[in-house]
Amino acid sequence: MNDIKEIFSLLNTTDSNDMALIEKAYNFSLKAHTGHVRNSGEPYFNHLFATAKNIAELGMGATTIAAGFLHDIVEDTSVKREELEKEFGPEILFLVEGVTKLGKIKYRGTTRYNESLRKLFVAMSQDIRVLIIKLCDRLHNMQTLQYVRQEKQMRIAKETLEIYAPIASRLGIKKLQRELEDLAFSYVYPQEYKDLQKLLKTKGEEQERYLEKFEKQIKKHLAENNIIHFRIDHRVKGLYSLFKKLSQKDMDIEKIYDISALRITVPEIPDCYRILGIIHGSWRPLPGRIKDYIASPKLNGYRSIHTTIFSGDGGIIEVQIRTEDMHREAEYGIASHLSYKEGSKKKTTNPSLLWVTKILPAKNHTEEGTSKVAADIPHWVKELVEYQKEAGDEFIEDIKDDFFKERIFVFTPIGDVIDLPKDSSVVDFAYAIHTDIGNKMAGAKINGKFVAINTTLQNGDCVEVETKKNAKPSSKWIPYCKTTVAKRHIRSELEKNK
Ligand code: MN
Hints:
Largest sheet: 5 strands, mixed
Bound molecules: manganese (II) ion
Structural class: alpha+beta
Helix content: 40-55%
Number of strands: 10
Oligomer: single chain
């Protein structure tokens, strides 16, 4: 249990410095979390080991794995940030603090917030590795969710479904997305989960029979055409993804052709098209279901050829054809491009994923600061939001600002995100919404609780301003203002009221 060799075996390097770093983080974390237990009663270190292992499984490098071991250390132990920096340097401290910061954003269970929260999450992470650590942390928390109090279970599972899994999807990390979704599904929709399992029992078995028979035939055809370098496997659709698709098709499982699919993986792109030709030469494809994501990749970078054919004995089968590189990328997405020695600048080969490396590079603390990163931003944003129509110019404009540094993000009661300079107060918030709201402010609530007007806002706070007709701003408010807008409005209103 918790054998560091398990992690070493997942590394794609045997660099002794890398191994030494991981081992140091392992020991440091083990010691710092001594006596600390989880809800399940098991040692807390199990969680850190599992998180680090999830990170290693994605092919990430030693720095990120080490940060995975240390991700809860500042929050949950007596180790101070200075000590962590002294032992592991600024880069690991940065990653750990990034993960800690993200942990403070809470899902409030209103669908209106979701897109804003996702943006907030990605923007706040500042470094793609912070997001990946957070996703791997969440994966283990989902795997052990049965030990958590019931109300909390629901909040975490919903947050996973609405925030974490979509982010994994946008980063192209299909493997994480599928695992997160399927774990959360049973908590958020318990009845639907049970129904679907029942439905799949008969339909899925039938489909598997068609697939097995087809697999034998296709192998024969490929051999006759002298194609010998290929790998075939069955991919079973994730339960939640099946559920979503079924919801769009009146829950009619007969309309779903890819409950399971046959996946053929080959060395080179021309092989993909040859195989497509061989398949279509012998089996009739369903019209409108041939998709060439190699020629036109999906926005998240996904590449593959899909076709659905009549198997000839009543079955309908989806076949996916791709190269090994595409397969790795489809499962591990952006992570498959970060698995180089961190800090170096290897270019991704997939242009659709360039945006991520551009905006959220593995942050290099020696060569360039965040300002240069911020300058590169607008380019990625369009592609960050997979649903372009939702993206809007507004968000892109927001980002042009010095978005990453010294900003906080808070919500209005209806879920709009307001970004303000760090250390802004309720007064700044009120004036950021509307001059009249600021001028008529009589009180404010943060996350449902009344607070003093000089209260400093934190990332992810939901702020509600109470107004009264006869309320007036006071000159005492000015020292609490971080924004010039608020100061200016207060002064002009004071002038008017004189
Ligand atoms: Mn954790």
